TrEMBL record:
Record-stated family: Belongs to the DapA family.
Binding site for pyruvate: 218
InterPro entries: Aldolase_TIM, DapA-like
PANTHER family reported for this sequence: 4-HYDROXY-2-OXOGLUTARATE ALDOLASE, MITOCHONDRIAL, DIHYDRODIPICOLINATE SYNTHASE
Any GO CC annotation of this UniProt entry: cytosol
Domain of life: Bacteria
Keyword entries, A-Z: Lyase
Alphabetized GO MF terms: 4-hydroxy-tetrahydrodipicolinate synthase activity
Annotated source species: Paracoccus onubensis
Protein name: Dihydrodipicolinate synthase family protein
Amino acid sequence: MTGLIHRNSAGVFVIAATPFADDGGIDLESTDRMVDFYLECGVTGMTILGIMGEAPKLSDAESRVFAGRVLDRVSGRVPVIVGVSGGGLDPMRSLTADVMAAGAAGVMVAPMQGMGPEDRLEGYFAQVCKALGPDVPVCLQDYPQTSNARFSVDSILRITRDNPQIVMLKHEDWPGLAKLSRVRAETGNADQPRLSILTGNSALFLPQEMQRGADGAMTGFAYPEMMVQVVELALNGDHDRAEDIFDAYLPLVRYEQQLGLGLAIRKETLRRRGVIASARVRAPGPAMSGTDHDELTRLTSRLEKRLKELG
């Protein structure tokens, strides 16, 4: 059995999609295949019910069914973080209690939409941590592109110092490399506890993030084996080989990163890889055009050719 997430958690915590059938219901058989696929790719952990997981489009009952299915299938082989973000503390507390009892390794919390100024962010996370209880490790999600709430480095430092159960930062600010460097440089000392830093943004900046001190990745790129290789090589200091591998996948990483359409592309790629049965995205959501499908076919074909050349 794995333990809880902690300040030195490292590796690839893949953000899992939520598979839907063509009729819109949760596809539990595809969920099982997806979990097996991620484990076969060598991920260190998984994160479910995040933005990529379309959590806001799930009912409370669906969220619990899906989380329970993933946790049962993983069966303690890797840590699973569950997204519990939401406006109300009571539903957040209830979902957290249930998933932690079912074997989750921690929870991820983003600020409420548009929350600011920073004293409100700091007050909000103090309330969240009090509501969840001191034994629940928390990953703070810094993703202003979707939350419209921006943390300064100083605010992150204060929040994590004042709330010691926040042990991990999901870093997704953009541009954010300088921010990452500061958080790494200014944590892990007598006054400021270390933070595990896992990065998102579809892995678009992963090699540079690793070189600046990130501990790994937390994103849902449809080829998680790339992230596993890049993170492992980077943690072992082989940045040149890490970048060689990353560069082969970069056109597809970039294509998947399109705001709005990216989730549809990612799900279609997982469908083509035999992971999920349908690429259905719940409404309101994007749909790929015929041209999009043709471009994806060309990109994946070129990726296969490049990987053969790399050996």
